[in-house]
Amino acid sequence: MRPHEKLDVWQAGVDLSIETYNATKKFPKEETFGLVSQMRRAAVSIPANIAEGASRQSKKEFIKFLYIARGSLSELETHAAIVKKLGYLDETCYTNAIIKTNNIGKMLTGLIKALKAVSGK
């Protein structure tokens, strides 16, 4: 098992990516290269950056990639708000997505704080 695969936040990011892919399948065809692409790339970027950071040589580099993952998470939350207002996501799906993004955000923040405490920064 690779180091990132042991992280709950990485697994939650993978799950969110799959859910994002499934949710965007129902979007209008004209959004294929717009919001569908943007949301999928933002979602996949979350666990991808966690994995890349975990493979780096220093905690400082790992933290940098966790911040990038957090930025992608914020991007996905913004896209979710937009597609809800456009009527592409129902209230239940939107609420579930926000709950999951909030949880992942808390996990990322906790991991960043823990890594900073260990590295003394």
Outline the secondary-structure elements:
Elements: H1 8-24, H2 32-54, H3 59-85, H4 91-119
Helix pairs in contact: 1-2, 1-4, 2-3, 3-4
Named at the architecture level, the CATH assignment is Up-down Bundle
Radius of gyration, CA atoms, in whole angstroms: 15 Å
Q: What is the helix fraction of residues, given as a range?
A: over 70%
The total number of structural domains is 1
Tell me the total number of β-strands. 0
CATH homology-level superfamily: 23S rRNA-intervening sequence
Distance between the termini: 29 Å
The sequence of SSEs as H and E is HHHH
Question: What are its keywords?
Answer:
121 residues; mainly alpha; de novo design (two linked rop proteins); 4 helices; 0% strand
Descriptive account of the structure:
It is a single chain. This protein is mostly helical. Helices cover 79% and strands 0% of the residues.
Q: Would you kindly provide a brief summary of this structure?
A:
The chain is mostly helical and 121 residues long. The chain contains 4 helices and no strands. It has one domain (3-119): de novo design (two linked rop proteins), CATH 1.20.1440.
